[in-house]
Amino acid sequence: MFSWEAGVRKIVHVDMDAFYASVEQRDDASLRGRPVVVAWRGARSVVCAASYEARTFGIRSAMPALRAEKLCPQAVFVPPDFVRYKAVSRQVREIFARHTDLIEPLSLDEAYLDVTRNKQDLASATAVATAIRDAIREETRLTASAGIAPNKFLAKIASDWRKPDGQYVIKPARVLDFLAPLPVAKLPGVGKVMEGKLADLGIQTVGQLRAHGLQGLERRFGRWGRRLHELSQGIDEHAVESERPTTQVSAEDTFAQDVTLEHTTEAIERLAAKAWAAAQREGDRSGRTVVLKLKTADFRILTRSHTPPTPPTSLQEVVAIALDLRSRVELPARVRYRLVGVGLANFRRHDELPPQPGLF
Prior knowledge:
CATH architecture of the largest domain: 2-Layer Sandwich
CATH class of the largest domain: Alpha Beta
CATH topology of the largest domain: Dna Ligase, domain 1
Structural class: alpha+beta
């Protein structure tokens, strides 16, 4: 254990190990020790989760199920049961809440916790992480990994360091040394495109990024250059947000067979209804912007959006806007689509919205 300097945040990132697959293996003894893939079978399906036994074959989440089957023909495919996974996730959240109210869920299986002050008066963030992982193991018969650090992005990196069923601490005094040898892709926001741009500058590690200096990064990338420099220094002031307001609700579906644009009407109407129902649960907040998402047969993603002067007030209005957005797609009529989605975004409280224009 270690002592944190006064004024330094104590952030824990908890990540359940192979969550969906682990729940399946826990509840069905015949699956234990076997390569389990949580996915529906079929040409249109993707992997929701893979057990560690399946991962040794190169199977990963979001991979097409057919590819997973080719990589490991002996894999056991289990259809996802999100009702069960959500129930376990609630159990885990209850364990978190015994230690802090500052909990920021990222998904069903991971969350940030600010334990700068903890309810159990434990001596350190390390002790809190250990207590949480022990309780998860005892009460759910599952394992979790944890990262402990002075901020969120470092804690998330650390939680992956000793997976599965482990934890890792990045002490404040070790932050710069810890980051220096890491590939820049480990930094939040650095995807394949940015990784390539940095490689063009001879930057592959966080240490090289730091050495490039603030001015050079700002000249090349503007405000994002400043952010990159801060991350290379281990600086991230984003607080744990325990109640993040909804910014978007959406629903999407993958067709059993690719369809032309004109044959997406029924799906758009159905998905708009789902998104509208979710939006109604926001109470005093409304989504101002309607979003249409399409994915072509060759996996090209298209999005179109429209923000009317006042938020949509009915499902029929959402459907009409979504269909109008579809008419703005300018690809040839022969193009076929594998997925469509409809969403409402740009949520605002009703008292923040512009007044509805008068009739006269």
